[in-house]
Specification:
By secondary structure, the protein is of the alpha+beta class. It is built from four helices and twelve strands. Helix content is 26%, strand content 28%.
């Protein structure tokens, strides 16, 4: 097993349908997403994009799209979808820095829930991301974290998000959301 992975090493891996990320030089792999994951991701991206598009605050982004922290050569993750803060009304330079992310969202991976609930939660919240959501297609819930000390909120009826500067919150009715995603 490789001890210290770099972004260059990731880029040299053959295309095998899996998703690879590195955090502080450690390699993580998740299998290619299946239909429930993609259906939820599409439904969420549509809502985030419609909410953010008229503003000069942020834009919704969908992976594959790199987010890095600290040593950019030893850190590359790809949140399923996220909101990136605009700088002077424009998307910041790619790859995005973790400090530019206002919201990170992962759709729960059935094969490795610990990665979403522990590793990614610590990564995002300890590096300045103000809010992190995990969506469970199976349970039809959203889990929201706002800090490392936050015990989390398990949401089943609705979720609201209002980044600084937005005049009103994004409100998602969760039963309607999941019906739209899977209907």
């Amino acid at each position: 097993m490789q001890a210290e992975w770099t972004v260059d090493m990731l880029d040299a891996l053959p295309e095998d349908g899996n998703r690879y990320e590195i955090i502080d030089g450690e390699l993580f792999m998740t299998p290619s997403p299946m239909y429930p994951h993609q259906a939820v991701l599409a439904a969420l991206l549509v809502r985030l994009r419609a909410y953010l598009r008229p503003s000069s605050i942020a834009r919704a982004v969908m992976s594959p799209s790199d987010v890095r922290k600290g040593d950019h050569n030893k850190n590359r993750v790809q949140p399923d979808t996220f909101a990136v803060r605009l700088r002077n009304g424009k998307i910041p330079e790619f790859p995005f820095d973790m400090s530019e992310v206002l919201l990170a969202v992962e759709v729960e991976s059935p094969s490795n829930k610990t990665y979403d609930y522990q590793t990614k939660r610590r990564l995002y919240l300890s590096n300045g991301v103000p809010e992190y959501w995990i969506v469970s297609p199976e349970a039809r819930t959203f889990t929201r974290f706002r800090s490392l000390d936050d015990p989390a909120e398990l949401l089943t009826s609705r979720i609201e998000w209002q980044p600084e500067g937005m005049p009103s919150p994004l409100v998602i009715d969760l039963p309607e959301f999941f019906e739209d995603a899977f209907g």
